[in-house]
Design brief:
The chain contains five helices and eleven strands. It is of the alpha+beta class and 207 residues long.
Length: 207
Amino acid sequence: MVLNYIAVSINERGYPPTLREIGNHMGIRSTNGVNDHLRALERKGYLLREDMKSRALRPITTRKEGEDTQNESRTNNVVDIPIIGLVAAGQLAEAIEHPEDTVRVDRMLIGSTKDVFGLRVNGESMINAGIHNGDFVFVRKQVEAQRGEIVVALVGDEATCKYYFPENDCIRLEPANEQMNPIVIQKSDWRSTQILGVVVGLYRQLS
């Protein structure tokens, strides 16, 4: 979404957006949060930025020459992501095989990741991370995660999207909303199947 917004701004206005404009578009309150997204795009080779200037953003995928080749490449890189509903851990594979819907996206939004599924976000617990109610999160299916990653975890019979923090005696699922409390699960009650995957992308339909 950030990369597309920058490209649209350059095409329509002739220059890229400011950090504040990107934050307003994405629903991210702090410029530090915007910088996190920009640094991730730089690391993945999708964006060039000169001296951290917000007006010097250039998507690397934007070019004028070889448009036919580029369009063909983009077509080949389109992938269908299955969108599934609330699932129990043991039913995840079946839910992916029989999704409620699918969304077609450019593979650049999820990188070379395989085994990706989508979930529609319900609630406002991750709004400060730029994840809003009604968004689709793209999730790489796996049962382990690194500390601080955004995961989709199974709590009871409901899948929830939170930051993952393993502590000495518990697992803390931290929201990105200061008005909400974390979900704390004792390690003795935590099952290895409760992590459904790690969030690797976001899709938002703009009305």
